[in-house]
Amino acid sequence: MNFWDKRYQSDDYVYGLEPNDFLRDHLSYLPPGRLLSLGEGEGRNAVFLAQNGFDVTAIDSSEVGLNKAKQLASKNHVNISIKVEDLSQFEQPENDWDVILAIYCHLPPELRLSLYPKIARSLKPGGVFVLEAYSPEQLEYRTGGPGSVDMLIPLEELESGFMGFHLSVSRKVVRTVNEGTLHTGEASVVQFIAKKPNA
Fold this sequence. Notes:
By secondary structure, the protein is an alpha/beta fold. It is 27% helix and 31% strand.
C-alpha cells in the first residue's frame, strides 16, 4: 500500500469535504467544459466542479482516495470519472482539456518541470491551468504540506513554466488554510491561474 493509500484509508476525509477556497473564489475564471484534476485525492474539488457543470476527470496515484471520491460524488448525485495513475506517466492528447487543476499537488522538482509543458500542450486554446500549493516559505509555518523544500513550489518556477500564457493570477500570499485535519492554519501559498493563448 502506497503512502497516499494509507493516508486515505480511514473513513474520514482527511482534507475535508469542502472545495479549496481559492478554487471556489475563482470559479468564474474557468471556461466551461472538460476539466482534469491532478492529484485529486478524495474528491472534494472534483465533486464541487461537477456540481457546477464541469465534465470532471480526476487523476491520482491512490486508488483508495479515488474510490472515496466516487463515493462522495454518488452521495452528492453527480458523476466524475477517475483514473488511477502516477503523474510520472502523465500523457494527454494535444488541445484536449478546457481546464487542468492542481490543488496542493506536490511533486519532486524534476517531475514538476516535466509536467508543465505537457499540461500546456494538452490544454485547448483558451484553456486554463489553475494551481494552489505551498510555497518554500511554508517551512516556516509548518501548518501542512511536505517537510522538504524541494517539494514546495516557487512562484518563479510556475511563471517560467507557463511563459507565453496570460497570467490572470500569479502571487505568493500568506492566508489561513482550513482544509480537514492536515491543512490547518496560517500558511504561505502560491496561487496561479494561467490561460493558454487562443490559436
